[in-house]
Amino acid sequence: DAGVIQSPRHEVTEMGQEVTLRCKPISGHDYLFWYRQTMMRGLELLIYFNNNVPIDDSGMPEDRFSAKMPNASFSTLKIQPSEPRDSAVYFCASSPRGGAYTEAFFGQGTRLTVV
Amino acid sequence: GQQVMQIPQYQHVQEGEDFTTYCNSSTTLSNIQWYKQRPGGHPVFLIQLVKSGEVKKQKRLTFQFGEAKKNSSLHITATQTTDVGTYFCAGPDAGNMLTFGGGTRLMVKP
Q: How far apart are CA A110 and CA A106, in angstroms?
């Protein structure tokens, strides 16, 4: 298995532009997580899905952020409009089951820079 | 919500020295996981501890879970340059999903 696949690996965009980050989870994993990592706030859980259904989006910082999972093999995180403070590394992770007993498998991340 | 706090934030060591990072919670944890993130990389699962007082070893790494299940530690014996990275602990939040500590960044001088 190739693991969790994210694209793009790097994204530089201008303030106000729409940004879409993509994730392909490991096949057979029922849970998908989106995390944001910054120096100031560490690794924050933004939202997670169970069987393609969003379960908890309380970590999504603002209405500018939205996430979808149209099928079991694809998810997107969209920021519209983007702002410089959104600059961070965004990780997607998947796990075969939910709950804190289950190991999370992380993708390589997308480094987003908003100028 | 549930938070796990890690100390120290940063640690510089000379190659060959030992290193320890600590993870603390104000409430009892059902379990704790440890991850390593290499510079420029992504978090990778190392181990999970579940039992009170549990100790697990992986080569030069020793993981402990406190008797009260409120703290945990990761100890590396005789660090090597390959140990460089950030070590995270993660425990369950109020919704029983993983919440990560702030991490300890380890730097090793050759």
A: 11
